[in-house]
Description:
alpha/beta; Dihydrodipicolinate Reductase, domain 2
Amino acid sequence: MIExxxxxxxxxxxxxAIVCLAVVFSGxxxxxxxxxxxxxxxxxxxxxxxxxHASLVQKEMYPGVDSTVYVFAPGGMxxxxxxxxxxxxxxxxxxxxxxxxxVYTGPDYLEKMLKEQPGNLVVLAGNNQRKTEYIDxxxxxxxxxxxxxxxxxxxxxxxxxxSAFEKADAQGLLLYDIMTxxxxxxxxxxxxxxxxxxxxxxxxxxxxEVPAITKESVHHFFKYVSGxxxxxxxxxxxxxxxxxxxxxxxxxxxxxxxxxAVPGGVADYVQDxxxxxxxxxxxxxxxxxxxxxxxxAAFPGFLDDYIVDDTxxxxxxxxxxxxxxxxxxxxxxxxxxxxxxxxxxxxYSIMRGNTCDLVIRQGEAENYRxxxxxxxxxxxxxxxxxxxxxxxxxxxLGEAYPGIAFEIVEEGLWRVSIPNKYRKGHExxxxxxxxxxxxxxxxxxxxxxxxxxxxxxxxxTTRAVExxxxx
Length: 471
């Protein structure tokens, strides 16, 4: 009898052990549920806000987003700048925000945030040297991530980012970067017109000499943000911390190339993307210019490798020629110290079609405001294109964007007249991107093409950095 009871006990213990193992292994395969607050709202955690873009995300309030934001940072001037900027939004007379900031500072700021998790969505905008590491750690902790560009600046970062995307997908987490340039009205209209076969005639394949798509961007170290001079951290001039131009600002341009030319995404970036040529070159800054933009009296030691004859050789300019699914593209980014009076950052873009070209210019002739032009290709009758433009305007474009018009500049060339109400400006684009992302949060997933495009984009930029470094 005793022996029989012992056998029953051993059998029951074995069953319990099997059940426990089943629970453990099923737990490994189960998606993590991201932390939510009691009201099922999104609560922001801002991690190490070293770039002014962190504050621009909070220039507006959002439905469904808690007004209390938890900030974790090492402290210092960058944090103070972020806090002051958010405070200015709270205190402005017109449509003030109502953010409450709970701030933790200390060397263990990352560990503190990951352990306590008072929120469920991490906002990243700062020094890019650790950004991919931050992303990976946040995903491992079961947190959604909303990151300023770039998510990766080196090839090794890209491999870690790719792994983070895989883990995010397995856990049902959203990982997304802030692509503001998709919301610039001239870019929106350029894309819409390129999709009209009877107007654009389809995108040409182009060549190295005459790319199908060219995008050029000129930025300035000294500028004004929210009406005040922008003070940049000294590390901004170190490519090991900020990233080279093609890996930083170039992220926007590479994104737009794919967004316009390959709207369905690039699933196989290794096969579909070919870097043909990559180069970089410096912008020279004097000690006085460096002091004006950073507030630093002298060049810090970590910039010694870039100092020649008391002049900083900032590796701030990049250009790449490449193909995406056989379509030739060229992207270039340049940085000057300061824009001419009345000017600012500029953008040039051309999409070459078989019927017309779609050109964005932002030069002196445009009063440094982006304008979109339509130019008939040689041999295509201008009157036929004019008729097609008018039909498109009356059939759909005019309904979607009341007030838009096509003005004749000369025979075969039109300027798209855009009412001021559609010109939101760079700072306002942050709220537009954020609202888009919050829509994805509500749906619980990103469109598949978005994740594909992010990976393809960072493969392109980090590969271009690698090839330029080898020259």
